[in-house]
Each structure stands twice: as C-alpha cells, then as structure tokens.
Amino acid sequence: MRVPHARVLLALALVSLDAGGARAQPAGPPPATPEAPAVPQPSPDPTNFEGIWQPDFVMPLVNAGEGTSGALATVDRKPLPYNDRGATIFQHRMRMEQAGTPIANSVSQYLPAIPVYQLDLFLGQMGVVQDRKNVVILFEDGSNWLIHLDRGHPAALAPSYKGDSVGHFEGATLVVDSIGFNTKTWLDSVGSPHTAKLHLTTRISKIEGGRRLEFLTTYEDPDLYTAPFTVRRTASYRPDGQLLESEIENLRSENNANLICEDN
C-alpha cells in the first residue's frame, strides 16, 4: 500500500519541477510596436504649392461708427481708400443692411466670387494642383481659381465673375495678374465695390519652412479708389487634410427672402 502512495508523491514532485522550470524560462521579446505612418510633408520645392491648405483667420477691420465688421484688412490696417463715388456705393449698401433689406452679392446667391476673396470665406480647406501650364486652387464649395502659366490674357476678354488669371514665377514667388471681372461681385462681405477696371496682382509664396502659403494681393481700381492697397492672407499646410463636400445654407429660400438684387 505504501508503494502506490510514493509513486503519487513522485509524480506530483515531477509536475512541480516542470512548472517551476517553465516559470524560470526568460521572457521573450515584446511584440514589435507597429510604426506610425509617415506624416506627409509639403514639397521641398519652393515653387511647388501642391497639397491641402487651410486658410488662416484674419481679424477683419471694425468700424464702430458705421457699425461694420468684415471689411478687408489691408497690410497697414487702414480703411480702404474709397473715392467719393466708391464711398457712396459702400455706404448705401451698409444702410440697406442696417435697415434689414440687405443687397444680394454673388456669394449670397451662390454665384462665383472673386477667387482671392474665397480665402476670406473660410469654407473649409483648399487643395492646390499644378503642372507646367496651370496652377489650380480648389475650394470645398466647388469653385476654383485657375491660373494660366502658359499664356497671357486673351485680347477679347468677356467680363466674368472670376475674371482671367495668368501667372509667372519670379524666383520662388508666383506672380498672378487678374483682370476681366464683371461688376456683380464685392471685394469683401460688407459691400466694398469695384468696377470692370479692377486689377489684382497676387504674389504667392511659401513661408515658414514651406508650411504656410502667403498671398499678397494688391487691388487697383481708379474709378472707385484713390490709391492701390494691399491685403495679406495666409493658409496653413494640412498634412492629413482632404476636401469635403459642403452644404451652402444660402441656397435655402428662407435665408434669402429679404435680399435685394442690384442692377449691374
């Protein structure tokens, strides 16, 4: 009777030794941590603007006396240099707004805007694609800014909402010349006017190590302004950005019931 009992004790001892040996084995290396995907970087080429960019907010000018906010902010932070005619048109639009009968501009009717003005609307991100012939800036509302690099302005240019833009590089700066605008658009959200003589020169450059685009636009319209003026805008690189669909609230009839259209 003692022999089977001894065998049981021996078996238990062997099991215990095996378990202890297993516990004594050195631990294996931990599983490898998967590498994070590389974050896209803007092109190191200073003349390559391709990628997704987010227009940066620029504090608009506020004129407490006229009750306005949203006028273009010039680089010297001064009011726009309207002449008498330009001031009369602007003040009429402001009075109509304050009376609750705002005048409809192209944006409120979901019609095209002057392309550089798109940077002030903050309608999401924008994408830039380019080749040797064109630079195209795509906005999330479906509009675009087409800049021709391979031609000048057509001799017979029909006025349009977006005008005609041609560009060339001066070093790392893209210089864009834009003319041919109709008079159905505004320069800003508060009603700064322009005529068909509007001439824009925009200098686009990479700054801050290529992670920001700078747009310096000089406005000239001798029929409504006493002197040219320059507006600075920027846009920040968004490595994981993508262009999304947008729904424009202004398309809804209840948002446009009190708008008044000007004759242009």
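Above is the first protein from milestone M3; the second protein from the same milestone is given next.
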Amino acid sequence: MVIASLNMIISHLRKAVWIARLCVCTIFAIVYIAIFVLSLLGLEAVIDYFRNITKRDERRHQFQELVATILYIIPPTISHSPFFITSIATLLRQFDESNETLLYIISRSLDASLICSAITPVLLSLSTLVALPPYRNVMLQIFRRTWKQTVGKLQLTSIAYMKNLCVSCNFTERFLRSNHEPSLNRSLQNRVYPL
C-alpha cells in the first residue's frame, strides 16, 4: 500500500516537473526569439538610419542612441544562444525521451551554457562601456587625462629647456659686458630675457 502510494506520488511529481520544464523552456524560447528578432530589426533600423542621415540632421542624436542600444543588446543575446538550443532540445526531448541525439545536444549545449554564463558579465561590462554614452565619455576622459599628462611632461621639459636657453643668453650677455665693448653693451642693455 505504501509502495503504491509512493509510486503515485512520484508519478505526479514527474508529471509536475515535466509540465514545469515544458512551461519554462517554452517561455524562454519565446522570449529569446522575441529579443533576437527585435535585435535584428534594430540592426536593420540602424543601417537604414545610417544610409539616410546627414551630418547636420536632427536625427543624428536618435541614431546614436539607437546604435548604443543595439551595441548593448546584441552581445548578451548572442551569449544566451546555447540556452536557447538547450530549451528547444529539452522541449523536443519531452515528446521523445528515447532520442540519444537530443540528449547529446542537450549535454553539449549545457556545457556551452556554463561557459557563456561565465562570459556574460564580462560581455555586459564591455558593452556598457562601449555602448552607453555616459560610460563611454568617462572612459575617453580617463584616456585623455593620461595623454594630457604625458603632453604636460613634454611641455614642462620644453619650458625647462627655454629657461636654460635664457640663462645661457644671460651668461653670454654678462660675458660680452665684461669685455667692455661699448657698442654691444648698449644694444644688450635694451634686451630683456625672462628667467
């Protein structure tokens, strides 16, 4: 009696798990297809905008926002493709559990899904830094600041060189004055050399 009731409970649990798996895989497949189709439509809109845009067009700002959105959406969508393959293969396997090919596809796509799960945060971070204007501007400012510091050092070096040059001019002037040449002495008195 107890064994029969346990078998019945296990049977109901298997049916509930099957229904839950069917629902989750179906919902994931539908959402993934919708995101993928919308990404392709967005990419098509970017190409269309790019063909029709001029440099002084008001739509240029809209174009930049659209490109930013597409650049932000496409990498995670691509990284979730193994999950989509897993969900489709799982859906098909629900109706044919003896199919070994589907089991192999599911195991390989689960391996790829694990790898993509590890890569997704990096992809999201990079796409955020590249696609979204506030983050992109900050990154560019960081690189510009480093470049300006390097140029600043060069400018300081050139200023130091100019100061050395002025010191050597003053030394030459003093040397000429010490030789007591009156004509040169008068012409050098009118010159001002900054230090």
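Note on the second protein: Confidence is low (pLDDT under 50) at residues 151-169.
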